[in-house]
Amino acid sequence: MARRKRLLTATMADGWVKTIGPTNAPFTHFWRIVAVLENGKTEVFWGHAASLKEATGKQAATRDAARQRGWQRYDFEVVELVEG
Length: 84
Prior knowledge:
Elements: E1 6-11, E2 17-23, E3 29-36, E4 42-49, H1 52-56, H2 58-69, E5 73-80, E6 82-83
Antiparallel strand pairs: 1-2, 1-6, 3-4, 3-5
């Protein structure tokens, strides 16, 4: 039997809201990287994961990316997705 499709919402600490779906994927968490580049511009990267462990695992890759790309700084956030 197929899972029913869900709408998932992530609300970040700064109030930014991302809606995912409709999906039947088993996502539970949303991650976001806000990177400040050498020229002062900002880039945002985001994704979703099936567990908190998977989402926080992106943090090590983010440190490597920051070093390789020369970001001045970055913020890495993970929040739980809410069905609604």
